[in-house]
Amino acid sequence: MPRAAVVSLLAPLGALAALTSCADAVLLRIDGDRAVPDELDAVCLAIADREPAGGAFGRVYRLEGELASLPQTLAVEPGGASSAEAWVRGYRGGVEVASDRAAVDFGGDVDLRLDRCAPGASGAPAEVDTAGPADARLAASVGRGGALVVALVPGGAAAVVDASGGSGGAALTATDLDLAGALGLLAADLDGDCDDDLVTFTATEVRLHRRDITGFVPPEPLAPLAGVRALAAADVDRDGDTDLVVGGGATLRLLRNDGDGALTADDTAIPAAAATDVTALALGDLDGDGNPDLLVGQGDAAAAPPRALLADASGAGVFALAPAILPELDLLVRGLALGDVDGDGDLDLAVALAAAPSRLYINRAGRLEDQSFVRLPQPAPAAAAVAIADWNGDCAPDLALAAAAGTSLLRGTDSDAFAADAAAAAASDVALVDLDDDGDRDAVLATAGGVTWLRR
After folding, report:
1. 3-state secondary structure of 372
2. What are 66-115's pLDDT values in tens digits?
């Protein structure tokens, strides 16, 4: 028997009878206050031995049929493991909306929650440490061993940055990572094990770096594609695995996943004339039909209008241009972030712009209405990157705008507007992620001194 008989001794979700008679078995219980399927339609559940050589298991489950409700339970027998870590990621419309993780000591059952609001730390953010390459692009990867941030200088150095000392660690470590000519990156679980892998692109190809416990294995080529500028990932065809959209110049392409991280280009899924100058991509359900739609930021050297493409209602992952969703304005888009800013259950859009104030679009029955002036502090800064997430534990999403003039950290308020929270160093990118695995999010900035960690 392997040290952690996790894989062979796990029962399918909801099917417990075969294992509950074992004295050593514990139950993982997934619960939460999100309605199935309107707010939650799939989960990825994983458990792994704390020992690096031990076993691990991860699997995506659609919440349908016999699984179309919460709570759900899973029985786990320890085998030779003395302790393990368990985590769950919840999805709606192909996009992650909630997550939780917990230690497993096999002394009692374990609850994992996928709630609308997770507890967090309040108070003023403070800088903890800086490490890694300067002026990088960031990708936050969550999985076995907790959260990692990959920092990439396009065409140059890269490193895996982590909080040392375990939960509550007070320093950063930076481990060099060979990404060999990579120009951009994205973290996404392409092989369905609940760990975020790393997708990078060079001048000539898109590559997959599968995640292990502390880093990433050497890359596998995914597609020979030139001119890529942006990536986005979601389960666009609703078959339980994560697909990839790549864009650059006038090209947009969907790469469909076979479930194990092998991607095949579908050149008929996105209209040929959908874009002219792609700079940023985002995927999320705009019209409430349960399928991820595609948002395309444009404008590299010359301003161009952003585009919205709606997925067909059947869930086949075929997109059509929807000109009425976004205002037809020429912009220099540098970043897109989706989040439910006003708490009405649909996705709103924050846009980072070069040489112009950042914008906030509120979703009104599937159309995005510019409400920047009333919901953002004025003048809103120009920015290189944007992130949305609740990182002060008050259940309102917060906003981070990374810019060369300094990073603006904005706090969500009861009026569904954003107020100034704190100012931070100039940055080329920003991520809101639980870097030290203590249960609440941190802010991670790509600054001129390296990757800077802010914690409340």
Report:
1. helix
2. 999 999 998 888 888 889 999 999 999 999 999 999 999 999 999 999 99
What is the rounded CA–CA span in Å between residue 58 and residue 83?
A: 17
List the one residue out of 153, 214, 148, 163 whose CA is nearest residue 184.
Answer: 153
SS3 195: coil
Residue 79 CA to its chain's centroid (Å): 32
Distance of CA 225 to the CA centre of its chain: 23
Q: How many CA atoms lie within 13 A of 199 on its CB side?
A: 26
Sign of CA dihedral 337, 338, 343, 344: positive
**Is the preceding omega at residue 219 within 30 degrees of 0, hence cis?**
no
> Is there a contact between 56 and 144 (Cβ–Cβ < 8 Å)?
yes
Whole-structure pTM value: 0.93
* Neighbouring residues of 270: CB distance < 8 A, sequence distance ≥ 6: 245, 252, 253, 254, 294, 309, 319
Q: Could you give the CA distance from residue 242 to residue 60 in angstroms, rounded to a whole number?
A: 10
**Cα separation, 144 vs 348, whole angstroms:** 31
Look up tokens 């110049």; give the residue: 249
283: helix, strand or coil:
strand
Radius of gyration of the chain (CA): 21
Say how far residue 383 (Cα) sits from the centre of its chain. 20
Smallest Cα–Cα separation from 436: which of 170, 177, 115, 219? 170
Listed in sequence order, the residues at least 6 apart from 21 whose beta carbon sits closer than 8 Å to its beta carbon are none
Tokens matching residue 66: 């016999």
* Cα torsion through 71, 77, 80, 85, rounded to 10: 0
Residues 428, 335: Cα–Cα separation, whole Å: 11
- Up-side HSE of residue 381: CA atoms within 13 Å toward CB? 20
Per-residue model confidence as pLDDT tens digits over 378-428: 999 999 999 999 998 888 999 999 999 999 999 999 888 999 999 899 999
Nearest CA among 87, 101, 92 for reference residue 63: 92
